[in-house]
Amino acid sequence: MKRIIKLLLPLLFTGVLSTLSVPVLSQGCMDDGGDDPIKLMGYIQPQFTSVFFEEDKFGNTLYKPNQFYFNRARIGIRGNIPYDVSYYVMAELTPIYTGAPFLLDAFVTYAPFGKYVKFSMGQFKSPFGIELNTPCFALYTINRTLAENYLASPFRDLGLMILGSTDTLFGKKDLIAYKFAIMNGTGINHWDDNKYKDYVARLVISPWEWLHIGGSYRYGKVGKNDEKGQKTKQRWGVDLSFEYNNILLQGEYITGKDKGLVGGGGGCGGKATSATNDLTEYNKNGYFVMLGYMTPWNLQPVLKYEYYDPDGTTYKYQWVEQNYIQSTVTFGLNYFLNDWTRIQINYLYNAEENSNVEYPNDALMIQVQAKF
User: Which domain holds residue 45?
Assistant: First the structure.
């Protein structure tokens, strides 16, 4: 059954993907706009997850996670300082990532030319990919895709960003939005172990309010240049989004080339690089396509298909390490109690592409969110 769904869903989505992001200019978790000198903000996401692991590919018995926890619990402040200066600070309070609360975002933005050109310096999201640049509280499924987690990482970093958008060009409002950042490349709250920098860029073109076309690129050197050479990472991606009359259609493709083993991993914690000196070239890629519809009853069913090829490198899925190609179908239902509170239910149906055995690694997730 998994094999049939795995084959049919890409064909179903490909037929409609040709018409296909939500352009998000904020480089933090939440919108950093507004005129308030200081404003409190944040959100919490208590969650229940049940993963149906029974054994790994070697026959070893695995525990079956069946637990309540906080996926995210964030609080921060934002505000404006005369003139043309704004600030943004956000902390992650849940210990699930690093074992203790930590600084998530903290940056200062100077906008001498309004929305056309802004300068931000501090720690913020990398300007890569549509899912990463969608705020966590606005994601249509509980999890981001594996491709986004492992090819758009590190999710956050310290650096300098130039960003902006057009006002009205050729009669179109916000026709072009752009971001370019020079970042440490070492990940969140790490600043002293990479003398090189990552260069990350994103461009979104919106010919109509309901259609957005995006492209992203990243390049960086990793670690030291020793007798085995210099490790490098290169990423590029394209994404499209269509949202019209309560219908949502999104898709993204990301490919990455690593010279040497380059550690990955999205989310909020952990370093972005590996100390391994193997300089074999790895070519990774992945994509997702997603369809959703907002009903008159504040219910939004969502169907998402995703695919990730790690090129034999090891990655984690639901706390377990694996190295095979995986495709996942997410059956989701979002219920919006109001503008600030929602309930998400996701069932993840997983299949292993290059394995003769399908492992019992499906998952059921339930998440409640409240933001302020």
Answer: 2-371
